[in-house]
């Protein structure tokens, strides 16, 4: 569920895009647009009872045919992704439509993090998937450098140009050449809360970090632990850090740290870690304390927030829009029992961070290129949108395709941001640092969650791991 895998951040100079600096300066405008969208997320919405994470949308069942696909009877191809549960199920519905239109047979291949290592094993064994959904720009770059990836063909590029802002095209490119279709996006600057808990505590939605701390105290005083943290999955901790760092240090520092142009021993990193420790360092504010959090996987961090009525294990859980999928596994309704507010401002601006999953071709064929073309079209995204727990950066997907007002507002805000966004920092890094369980940033922040007093030690470890991964 790492996904796509949404601060919204822009890929650094690794794409070779000369307009990246201009987009970086647009952070405030982009943040305002996305914050405006997420502020409306507390409106009631028809959350789903099933594991699809959203209500039914009859409009999404009426699939359109805006893209022409070849007949591929007798052809077969495989698609690898680190998606499980409802996320995998819903993507398979999209693949079913591709099969229906083309006659090709598509097999979904469950992958594991880090996906680059998984793909390396498959390639070494002579069985690479035809297409892989890569959750990091850094992974796309590595796949290209290793000679695994194939550039997108003319048809897929045409769909990209028609349906995606230049910024989303750029982060799927390496040295100016398009390799990835960012099929799935995520707004990763949201905090979800149990409305019964907030009502009992007399708490309201905070807009600043200090207000968040006040809200946490009110929830704690009411008898409920404030936060649920899925610390067993290190990527959730990187997302916490990125939101704090982007808001507190600002977009320019964020871009520099993402590219390792400044060291993790920089004072700005110490400031962000110290801020995080205001929550992570309070054992009574984290469900199960640090040890409990480090044994809690992301899905459980969500479900334990929305089960147990007004006495759940925690009152709030931080993560992206895809939390809706896991809420759908409980009896809670999004928009009534479960609501959401934007990650509060630590500095002058509230952070807006984005992530995403890109389709990358590993075995060049007419079928693989056709699937990439389909995934770049509004057709594929419209099907997935109607199933819930999904956002598309495709600007030609109608907001009405999403099953509830919560997702419609998030989708509108995502598209409205255009080229002005920041992408998840750890996803920009080499996978050895930003995308490997038990190593690099994931492990260093897990260790920091265990001992939030050791800011300097955490910085030293982060810098040592980053220098080794970036090669500088």
Question: Please, could you describe this protein's structure?
Answer:
This protein has 472 residues and is an alpha/beta fold. The chain folds into 2 domains: 13-187 and 354-416, D-Maltodextrin-Binding Protein, domain 2 (3-Layer(aba) Sandwich); 190-342, Periplasmic binding protein-like II (D-Maltodextrin-Binding Protein, domain 2). Helix content is 46%, strand content 11%. It is built from 23 helices and 11 strands. A 5-stranded mixed sheet has the order 2-1-3-11-6, sandwiched between helices. It has a 4-stranded mixed sheet with strand order 8-9-7-10. Helix 4 (85-102) links the parallel strand 1 (76-81) and strand 2. The chain is globular and about 65 Å long. The two termini are 31 Å apart. The model is unreliable at 1-33 and 35-62 (pLDDT under 50). Residues 1-24 are annotated as: Disordered. Keywords: Transport. Residues 1-15 have a biased composition (Low complexity).
């Amino acid at each position: 569920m790492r996904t796509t895998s949404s601060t919204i951040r822009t890929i650094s100079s690794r794409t070779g895009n000369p307009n990246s600096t201009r987009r970086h300066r647009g952070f405030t405008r982009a943040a305002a647009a996305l914050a405006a969208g997420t502020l409306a997320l507390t409106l009631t919405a028809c959350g789903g009872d099933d594991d699809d994470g959203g209500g039914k949308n009859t409009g999404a069942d009426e699939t359109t045919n805006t893209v022409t696909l070849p007949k591929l009877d007798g052809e077969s191809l495989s698609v690898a992704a680190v998606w499980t549960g409802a996320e995998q199920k819903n993507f398979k519905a999209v693949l079913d439509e591709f099969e229906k239109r083309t006659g090709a047979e598509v097999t979904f291949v469950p992958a594991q993090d880090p996906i680059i290592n998984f793909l390396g094993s498959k390639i070494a064994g002579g069985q690479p998937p035809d297409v892989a959904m890569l959750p990091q720009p850094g992974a796309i770059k590595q796949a290209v450098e290793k000679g695994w990836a194939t550039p997108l063909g003319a048809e897929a590029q045409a769909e990209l140009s028609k349906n995606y802002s230049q910024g989303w095209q750029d982060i799927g490119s390496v040295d100016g050449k398009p390799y990835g279709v960012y099929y799935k996006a995520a707004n990763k600057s949201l905090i979800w809360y149990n409305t019964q808990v907030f009502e009992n505590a007399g708490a309201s939605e905070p807009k600043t970090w200090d207000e968040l701390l006040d809200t946490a105290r009110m929830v704690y005083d009411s008898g409920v632990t404030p936060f649920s943290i899925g610390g067993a999955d290190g990527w959730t901790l990187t997302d916490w850090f990125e939101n704090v760092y982007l808001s507190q240090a600002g977009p320019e520092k964020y871009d520099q740290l993402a590219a390792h142009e400044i060291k993790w021993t920089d004072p700005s990193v110490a400031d962000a870690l110290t801020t995080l420790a205001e929550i992570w360092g309070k054992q009574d504010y984290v469900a199960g304390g640090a040890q409990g959090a480090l044994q809690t996987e992301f899905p459980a961090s969500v479900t334990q927030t929305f089960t147990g009525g007004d006495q759940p294990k925690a009152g709030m859980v931080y993560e992206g829009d895809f939390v809706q999928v896991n809420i759908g596994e409980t009896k809670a309704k999004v928009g009534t029992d479960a609501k959401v507010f934007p990650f509060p401002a630590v500095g002058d601006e509230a952070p807006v961070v984005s992530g995403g999953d890109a389709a990358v071709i590993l075995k060049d064929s007419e079928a693989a290129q056709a699937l990439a073309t389909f995934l770049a079209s509004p057709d594929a995204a419209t099907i997935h949108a109607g199933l819930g727990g999904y956002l598309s950066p495709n600007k030609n997907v109608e907001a009405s395709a999403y099953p509830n007002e919560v997702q419609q507002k998030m989708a509108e805000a995502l598209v409205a941001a255009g080229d002005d966004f920041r992408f998840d920092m750890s996803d920009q890094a080499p996978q050895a640092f930003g995308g490997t369980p038990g190593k690099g940033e994931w492990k260093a922040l897990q260790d920091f969650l265990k001992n939030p007093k050791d800011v300097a030690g955490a910085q030293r470890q982060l810098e040592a791991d980053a220098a080794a991964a970036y090669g500088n």
